[in-house]
Amino acid sequence: MSHVDVEIASQPDCWRRALDLAPRGLPEPGERVAVIGCGTSLYMAQAYAALREDAGLGETDAFAASEFPHRRRYDRVLAITRSGTTTEVVEALGRVTSGETVAVTADGATPVAGAARSLVVLDFADERSVVQTRFATTALVLLRARLGLAPADLPHQAELALAEPLPEGASAAQQFTFLGAGWTCGLAHEAALKVREASYRWAESYPAMEYRHGPVSVTAPTSAVWFFGAPPAGLESEVRALGATVSVSPLDPLADLVRAQRLAVEVAVSLGLDPDRPRNLTRSIILDRP
């Protein structure tokens, strides 16, 4: 088994541990919060920001770390960074001039420890893989639990996501579209990234209602369209009429992301690719600065 296979399979146990944690330093109700990250961590930031604001717990913005508007005032800036070394994240935290800073990371002995005032270390969810899976989802489980929005049976739902068959024909698709709404838009973006990283296939992601406004034009019988959460009324039947393979799951959308991770690996393996060695990628982006 590849490293990423093992790490995907370990998510139920990681999520159980995350649900038992009560770390300090995370956003408090009513605070104005910015959440930053890169790649997968950015998409987890987007999901968390939407959940927190929709729950009425405070204005919450998500940014790619390289695009963080450091002149804005926030009560707290939360960074999500698996490696703790990503240049853009460390630099963004260093530009924060007011409010608290906290980082959720897998390794506390890294530069992020000097850049953030508080750390939440999920070392049990660290990974060998370049392609992120369990750290990102475990971080989001922790953050959802802090909001009171993590179902108690979420680890069990992850186990179901590991056990049930993938949609028939999905791994043979030539083109993938992942759709979400609200907080699950971040999950859709992450699922598309997983497919691109592991298998180099054409994968897109959109808010579900935006899919009708142009992106639907690429959908064909060689496509797979994956909904995170319930599809908007009438959209599933429209997609099926185009001949695409469709995935709609009753699982919590984060558990459904586990299925999408499995799909990415299955597609890679079917193409003779090694998902542990994606081309042009490294585990952490550390930039040379003049």
Question: Can you describe this structure?
Answer:
This protein has 290 residues and is α/β, with parallel strands linked by helices. It is built from ten helices and nine strands. It has a five-stranded parallel beta sheet, with helices on both faces. The chain has a four-stranded parallel beta sheet with strand order 7-6-8-9, sandwiched between helices. Strand 6 (175-180), helix 8 (184-199) and strand 7 form a beta-alpha-beta unit. Helix 3 (40-54) runs parallel beside helix 6. The longest helix has 18 residues, at 253-270. The termini are far apart. The model has no long low-confidence stretch (mean pLDDT 95).
Shape: globular
Radius of gyration: 18 Å
Give the terminus-to-terminus CA distance: 41 Å
Order of helices and strands: HHEHEEHEHEHHEHEEHEH
Q: What share of residues are in beta strands?
A: 15-25%
Strands, count: 9
Q: Average the pLDDT over all residues and give the rounded result.
A: 95
Q: What structural class do you assign from the helix and strand content? A: alpha/beta
Strand line-up across the major sheet? 2-1-3-4-5
- Largest sheet entry: 5 strands, parallel
Put simply, the count of helices is: 10
Instruction: Estimate percent helicity.
Output: 25-40%
Poorly predicted runs are none
Key features?
290 residues; 4-stranded parallel sheet; 37% helix; globular
